[in-house]
Amino acid sequence: MTESILIVDDERGQREILQTILEGEGYRVAAVPGGREALEQMETRGFDLILTDLKMQGMSGMELLEKTLADDPLQCVVMMTAHGTVDSAVEAMKKGAFDYLEKPLERDDLLLTLRRAFERVSLLKENRALHKQLEDAGGIPNLIGEHPKMKEVYRVVTKIAPTTSTVLIYGESGTGKELVARAIHDGSPRKNKPFFAINCAAIPETLMESELFGHEKGAFTGASSREIGIFEAADGGTVFLDEIGEMSVGMQAKLLRAIQSKEIRRVGGKVNVPVDVRIVSATNRELEGEIRKGNFREDLFYRLNVIRINLPPLRERGSDIATLADFFVRKYSAQAGTSVKGITKPALKLLMNYSWPGNVRQLESVIERGVLMAESDQIEPSDLPAEVTEGLSQAGWVPFELPPEGIQFEDLEKNLIIKAMERAEWIIAKAAPLLGMSYKTLQYRLDKFGIARGREE
Which end of the chain is more exposed for a tag (fewer CB within 10 A), N or C? Predict the structure, then answer.
């Protein structure tokens, strides 16, 4: 769908030039000479973005911004300003404008700013859709179950969502940490403000500061324009920092300062920018152990760990597997337009006996595949992937012939641990189920043998 823009400028020539440029780029554009006309237009049709001059006859751009955001706090507004009124444009950003452009406008700067703005618009639309889904479902989508450990999660989320406290979610990969973070946001007074999620393990250390706090033009090679970071973009809303244990110690110090001062400074910038964000973080590591190793700052840990939520792995709530599987069958059968209605008892038995190292995310993928592969209205064992159908032998007794000369048991144990870690790409939470161990037990054995990436320390 083509993005729509409303241009508001009392200079006719400026309006016509902008309209020509933006229509040439494929945008749907309307243009009006003042704030009152803009409000009338917005009453009859919606716009993805408002591009407004700051100084105008009658209603100013600042007044238009305030009235627009009062009606729709998620409306994206970009200000245009003359050089002498940049301070006012910065004030407009504090009140909710996405960005500002200095006149005379440079075509490339204009188009780049709009591209960034529409990326945010896309995220906000996704967030609105999720919020509606939550209201319709009356709970946390895809986070389903009646196990006592899950009921405790629901209880805590309901209790703490309306507060401003920071939250730390513990859970293995695939347990639904981001779903919980979104539910906290959508149950809070910030629900109409942005929600941004960032995976700390997926962003190189050299780019992390810019991603979170933004940067000024020329701050580093390739920084061709000013970029707003996630903290500024999420002002008034929530930032979800997934896999926080992967963040470097140096970056942890900068994050701690931002949380304490409620200010950020863009890379290459000289001015502190006030921000109001709620921090929800998540990890699959035991951060207390990382503190002892010097990998995580203790002061940051206590800032993040005000409220702790423990998400259980799927293998610890096996009674929920059938309920989850039924939910995913209905979901993907409807999406694919198939007649699949359920799962046969033999197939369900395989699902119940599998260890699920990938947790609910893996179960969802398995059921989606089963729905697509099923030849009847029921998922059969033959519709399931090999890792599930062979799961009983993998999780059960492995035949072993004891040699006449005996064995060095610790050497055998160490080699098995190394093989499991290699198969799990050195992620403890994934390797532990392969060995039938808990996370803490495997961590203890890794420390005991001094295993680090397959080498003894």
Answer: N
Angle at which helix 12-24 crosses helix 107-137, to 10 degrees, equals: 70
The 8-class DSSP code of residue 267 comes to B
Phi, psi of 403 (to 5 degrees): -70, 155
The 3-class secondary structure across 327-388, one letter per residue, is: HHHHHHHHHHCCCCCEECHHHHHHHHHCCCCCHHHHHHHHHHHHHHHCCCCEECHHHCCHHH
Q: Give me the amino acid identity at 395.
A: A
Do the domains 139-310 and 4-122 match in fold? Answer: yes
Of the candidates 433, 359, 345, the residue with the CA atom closest to the CA atom of residue 145: 359
User: 274 pairs with which residues across the strands?
Assistant: 263
Residue 450 has pLDDT above 90, yes or no: no
The answer to whether 356 touches 362, Cβ cutoff 8 Å, is yes
Where do the structural domains in the chain lie, given as residue ranges?
A: 4-122, 139-310, 314-395, 409-456
pLDDT digits (tens, 9 = 90+) for 167-226: 999 999 899 999 999 999 988 999 999 999 999 988 888 889 999 999 998 888 888 888
- At which residue do the structure tokens 């470097």 appear? 248
Asked if 78 and 99 touch (Cβ cutoff 8 Å), the reply is: yes
Domain 139-310: give its CATH code.
Answer: 3.40.50.300
| pLDDT tens sequence across 374-387 | 999 999 999 999 88
Q: Are 366 and 386 in contact (CB under 8 A)?
A: no
Over residues 333-380, the pLDDT tens digits come to 888 888 898 999 999 989 988 989 899 999 999 999 999 999 999 999
Q: What are all long-range contacts of 136-140, with beta carbons under 8 Å and residues at least 24 apart?
A: 139/183, 140/176, 140/179, 140/180, 140/182, 140/183
Task: Tell me how far apart the alpha carbons of residues 322 and 317 are, in angstroms, rounded to a whole number.
Answer: 11
239/25 Cα distance (integer angstroms): 32
Q: What's the rounded Cα separation, in Å, for the pair 28 and 19?
A: 9
Supply 308's token pair.
């702790």
Strand 76-81 vs strand 214-215: parallel, antiparallel, or unpaired? unpaired
Phi, psi of 124 (to 5 degrees): -70, -35
CATH topology of domain 409-456: Arc Repressor Mutant, subunit A (1.10.10)
CATH number of the structural domain 314-395: 1.10.8.60
CATH of the structural domain 4-122, one choice from 3.40.50.300, 3.40.50.720, 3.40.50.2300, 3.30.450.40 = 3.40.50.2300
Report DSSP state, residue 245.
G
